Amino acid sequence: MDALMAASFDPRFGEAWTHGQVLGVLAMPGVRLTLAFIDNVPAGFALVRTVLDEAELLLLAVAPDFRRQGIGGALLRAAIADVEQSGTKIMHLEVRAGNEAGRLYAQNGFHKVGERRGYYRSVTGTAHDAHSYRRFSPEK
């Protein structure tokens, strides 16, 4: 997973997590990791945490060689379905301002609800804003 993480996030933006951060979150209750494989090669993942009646998409990543093939959308829809199946109605996420993934989130029912100035820090110390999104599951 470390190689997939490193390949999936541009170090200019400081979005990738360390091995220790991932292990620490995976040990928490309510955390689910979904991996996507193409021909036994890790292509992407979604990391979601559910607390009480709300969920947060912590990370969604697709390796560069597998982008533009629908993997990110499939991972996002799987995460949403998993959250909804558990009865959770609200899902949150944050994404760097300017990240193309914002369109994917909007296409899947997420709406921008806020902004955090300087949330992400690159390896050079450059600050990048984060946009906060929320999705309410439709009533069945």
- Tally of structural domains: 1
Note the beta-strand portion: 35-45%
Helix proportion range:
25-40%
Shape category: globular
Biggest sheet layout: 6 strands, mixed
Order of helices and strands: HHEEEHEHEE
Q: Remind me, CATH topology?
A: Aminopeptidase
Q: Which second-level CATH architecture applies?
A: 3-Layer(aba) Sandwich
**Care to count the β-strands?**
6
Structural class estimated from helices and strands: alpha+beta
Provide an overview of this structure.
26% of the residues lie in helices and 40% in strands. The protein has four helices and six strands; from the N terminus they run ααβββαβαββ. The chain has a six-stranded mixed beta sheet. The protein has a single domain (2-136), classed as Gcn5-related N-acetyltransferase (GNAT) (Aminopeptidase). The model has no long low-confidence stretch (mean pLDDT 90). With 140 residues, the chain is an alpha+beta fold.
